[in-house]
Amino acid sequence: MMASGAYPVGYRFHPTDLELVAYYLHNRVAMADQFHSSPILDCPDFYGKNAPWLIWDRFRAQSNNMKEEETLYFFTHRKKLNPKAKKFDRKVGSGTWSAQYSKNVVAADNSVVGIKREFRYEGGSDPHQNGAWLMQEYEITSHNDLVLCTLRKNPRKLPPPTCPAPLNHQSHIVSSTNNSIIDCPYDTSHMYFDREVEAFFGLTTDDLNDDDYNCQFSSSEVQAFLACLD
Q1: What is the pTM of this model?
Q2: Which is nearest to 122 in space by CA: 101, 94, 152, 89?
Q3: Of the residues 19, 75, 109, 163, which has the fewest C-beta atoms closer than 10 A?
Q4: 219 secondary structure, DSSP code
Q5: Three-state DSSP class for 145?
Q6: Which residues contact 61 (CB under 8 A, 6 or more apart)?
Q7: Residue 137 CB contacts under 8 Å (≥ 6 apart), including other chains
Q8: Residue 164, CA distances (Å) to 58, 140, 189 in order
């Protein structure tokens, strides 16, 4: 996904599994950081503490013409559970990438050039996001660390809308425990953005960012707000 004007109008990056492994990943493994391809981004922390929708918002902002149903592509490195482990750690955010199936990537001469694995985001603290994100991981058979990954939204269960913001951005949520608006990290489990809070309760951004402003609401008001986001 390149910036506007880099490709002709109507161009879409839709490589085959074989092209992703035999050309893009093979060249990246062979040439390391000397090989770059604009449609495939570098995301060293793809497997880490940032949830899929945060990665999506961050990198989609670099792809001006990318549509919601399209796919992001990344080079990244997997991390083992521990130095002696054979398995890789695929935890991400508060959840994990749950394996669905895998298959060999086969060349024209029937030789196996890589492996493709399908994953779905599960086990996170936000039920609206669980199952809503899909990931594919491509590896070269002889190389188990550097991989090429794709990230897209699940068309069968679309995630709730988000708004782009930097990772670790501070925002606000409505707490159903004490009926108040509280600060929270951007990767909180139930994310309700300032613009929605402002519109529903008639508040301003200054109100929300004022530490001395006590935003208290009735239980019915909070429940009505949460219901409108479902």
Answers
A1: 0.66
A2: 94
A3: 109
A4: H
A5: strand
A6: 164
A7: 78, 97, 116, 117, 119, 147, 148, 149
A8: 7, 33, 16
pLDDT in tens, 93-143: 999 999 999 999 999 999 999 999 999 999 999 999 999 999 999 999 756
Tell me how far apart the alpha carbons of residues 109 and 112 are, in angstroms, rounded to a whole number.
9
Half-sphere exposure of 197 (CA within 13 A, CB side): 24
Q: Which pair of structure tokens corresponds to residue 161?
A: 């809308």
Whether 118 contacts 104, CB under 8 Å: no
Euclidean distance between CA atoms 59 and 132, whole angstroms = 18
Interatomic CA distance for residues 2 and 79, integer angstroms: 28
Q: Which residues of 37-67 are buried (b: 16+ CB within 10 A; e: fewer)?
A: eebbbebeebbeebbbbbbbbbbbeebeebe
Residue appearing with tokens 């670099």 = 62
Residue 146: CB atoms within 10 A of its CB come to 15
Q: What is the DSSP letter of 48?
A: S
Task: In whole angstroms, give the CA distance from residue 112 to residue 52.
Answer: 30
